[in-house]
């Protein structure tokens, strides 16, 4: 006779998979835990699969990055400069599940609405006064003016923004719980795609006439 345990094993395996997927999804969708002390990225930045620098060749400078000390360029239409520190710019972050960025905002500068599909964002203002906000899945806006030393958290995947509301320049540091959180700027995702999204589709979605959409498309090179 077949053992009851043999009969039940597939069922319990299936049950465990369901529990892992629906009751504790975080381990399944977050950056994987590293399997070694470190993995200094050596493959080209455009490749998702990174190869590790030989441990014997690793030096202290592989764990050092000074990019966030440099002022970002705000001479653009948004008045915002972004300096990233992901595993692309800072190979020592590879496999560690964290990343940072510096945002410089001129007076009135805006980091336009965008999302990070793979990471939550912790915002800390170093200088100035910055309006930070995000929109929930229920279309509720949560926002607050954040000042020096204060924090604001943006949950993973939600549309959010930062706007300088002070009289002078503002500096923001953001931290992500992913080594490569990704960024999808809403204006460019809708009006700056190649090829362009059908203008009639956009006009219907935004409940405006075609001339408005044509103007928006032209602003983003379409």
TrEMBL record:
InterPro entries documented for this protein: Cupin_1, Germin, Germin_Mn-BS, RmlC-like_jellyroll, RmlC_Cupin_sf
Subcellular localization: Secreted, Extracellular space, Apoplast
A GO cellular component annotation in the UniProt record: apoplast
Entry keyword Endoplasmic reticulum: no
Superkingdom: Eukaryota
Record GO biological process: plasmodesmata-mediated intercellular transport; regulation of root development
Record keywords, A-Z: Apoplast, Disulfide bond, Manganese, Metal-binding, Secreted, Signal
Signal sequence range: 1-30
Positions of the Cupin type-1 domain: 66-214
Annotated oxalate binding sites: 111, 116, 121
Residues holding Mn(2+): 114, 116, 121, 160
Sample GO molecular function, one term: manganese ion binding
Cystine pairings recorded for this chain: 39-52
Purpose of the protein: May play a role in plant defense. Probably has no oxalate oxidase activity even if the active site is conserved.
Similarity comment: family membership: Belongs to the germin family.
Self-association state and partner proteins as the record states: Oligomer (believed to be a pentamer but probably hexamer).
The protein, known as: Germin-like protein
Organism, as annotated: Phoenix dactylifera
UniProt lineage: Eukaryota, Viridiplantae, Streptophyta, Embryophyta, Tracheophyta
